[in-house]
C-alpha cells in the first residue's frame, strides 16, 4: 500500500501513529522521524539520544482529556532517558527530559484519561510521572521490564519481565492513590517464555484477556479474571493461559484489535519473518 523509506539510514526498530492516523512515527537508531501517512513525505526529524531509541509513542490525541496535545511525542532509549518532542515547534531540543532511570528505558506510554506518563526500564522499575503535580512514583519490580501494556480504560497495567512473568496490577488515576498500587499484583507465566527476548503483551479490547508473545514461537492468551474492589484476583495470584502455535521463531510482537466489538481478534509477529492474524474459533468466519 505504501512505503516509507525517506530518512531511514539504519534499521527501523519501532513505529507508531498519532491518534488521528495522519502521522507515522518511526525510529532509525538514535533518530525519530515523523512522516505524513498519506504522502509518505518526512515532515520532521529529532535527534539527541546517546543510544538507540527503543520505543516511541504519541502521548495525546484528539479525543484525549489528559491535556496533552496530539503533537507531543515521547521516545524511550537505551541511554536511560525519555525525551518529549513538540511537533508544533521548530526547535530540535526536547520539550522535557526524564532521566531518572538507572538503565535502558524500554517502553513509554501516556496515561488513559489522566495527565500521566508511564515508563519501564531494565533497572526493574515502573515509573509514573504526574504532569499536573510534577511528582514521580516508582514501582520496583526487581526484575528487568522489557515492555508493558495499558488496558483500554487505563485501570490496569501488564508488565512483561525478563524472568518470564507478566505482572498485572491496577493503575492509579490519582497521585494520591499510587501507593495502593503495590497491593494489586498478579502473575501470568504458565504458557509463555520470556527470559532472553523482548516479548510484547497486550490487553484484549474487552480487558478480559492478556495476549503475549513467547520465545518458543507461541502466542499465549491469559484470562485476566475478576478483580475485587482492591484489584486482587478472585482466582489467586496466577492464571493458566492457552498457548497458540504457528510461528517457528520467537514471537516478539503482539497487538489486539482496538474495536470493542472484536475482542477475539489479535495479530502476532515473529523473528521467523511472518505475521499471523488470530481469531477465536467461534468468530473465524468473520475473518475469511
Task: Throw out a few tags for this protein.
288 residues, 4-stranded antiparallel β-sheet, 43% strand
TL;DR of this structure?
Helices cover 0% and strands 43% of the residues. The protein has 288 residues and is mainly β.
Would you mind describing this structure in some detail?
The chain has 288 residues and is an all-beta fold. The protein has strands at residues 12-17, 23-28, 31-36, 42-47, 53-58, 72-77, 82-86, 96-98, 105-110, 116-121, 125-130, 135-140, 145-150, 156-161, 166-170, 186-188, 201-203, 209-212, 218-223, 238-239, 242-245, 251-256, 265-270, 275-279. The strands form six sheets. The protein has a five-stranded mixed β-sheet, with no helix packed on it. A four-stranded antiparallel β-sheet has the order 1-2-3-4, with no helix packed on it. The chain is globular. Residues 227-237 have low confidence and may be disordered.
Amino acid at each position: 500500500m505504501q512505503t516509507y523509506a525517506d530518512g531511514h539510514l539504519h534499521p527501523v526498530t519501532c513505529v507508531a501513529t498519532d491518534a488521528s492516523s495522519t502521522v507515522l512515527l518511526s525510529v532509525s537508531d538514535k533518530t525519530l522521524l515523523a512522516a505524513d501517512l498519506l504522502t509518505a513525505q518526512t515532515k520532521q526529524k529529532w535527534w539527541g539520544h546517546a543510544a538507540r531509541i527503543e520505543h516511541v509513542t504519541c502521548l495525546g490525541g484528539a479525543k484525549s482529556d489528559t491535556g496533552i496535545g496530539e503533537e507531543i511525542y515521547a521516545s524511550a532509549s537505551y541511554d536511560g532517558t525519555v525525551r518529549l518532542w513538540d511537533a508544533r515547534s521548530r526547535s530540535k531540543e526536547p520539550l522535557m527530559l526524564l532521566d531518572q532511570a538507572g538503565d535502558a528505558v524500554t517502553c513509554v506510554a501516556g496515561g488513559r484519561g489522566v495527565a500521566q506518563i508511564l515508563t519501564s526500564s531494565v533497572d526493574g522499575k515502573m515509573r509514573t510521572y504526574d504532569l499536573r503535580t510534577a511528582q514521580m512514583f516508582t514501582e520496583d519490580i526487581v526484575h528487568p521490564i522489557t515492555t508493558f501494556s495499558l488496558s483500554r480504560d487505563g485501570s490496569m497495567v501488564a508488565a512483561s519481565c525478563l524472568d518470564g512473568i507478566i505482572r498485572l496490577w491496577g493503575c492509579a488515576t490519582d497521585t494520591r492513590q499510587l501507593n495502593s498500587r503495590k497491593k494489586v499484583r498478579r502473575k501470568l507465566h504458565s504458557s509463555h517464555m520470556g527470559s532472553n527476548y523482548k516479548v510484547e503483551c497486550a490487553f484484549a479490547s474487552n480487558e478480559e484477556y492478556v495476549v503475549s508473545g513467547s520465545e518458543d514461537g507461541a502466542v499465549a492468551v491469559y484470562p485476566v479474571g475478576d478483580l475485587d474492589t482492591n484489584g486482587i484476583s478472585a482466582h489467586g495470584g496466577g492464571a493458566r493461559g492457552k498457548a497458540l502455535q504457528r510461528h517457528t521463531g520467537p514471537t516478539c510482537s503482539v497487538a489486539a484489535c482496538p474495536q470493542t466489538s472484536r475482542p477475539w481478534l489479535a495479530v502476532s509477529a515473529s523473528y521467523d519473518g511472518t505475521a499471523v492474524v488470530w481469531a477465536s474459533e467461534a468468530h473465524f468466519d468473520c475473518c475469511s
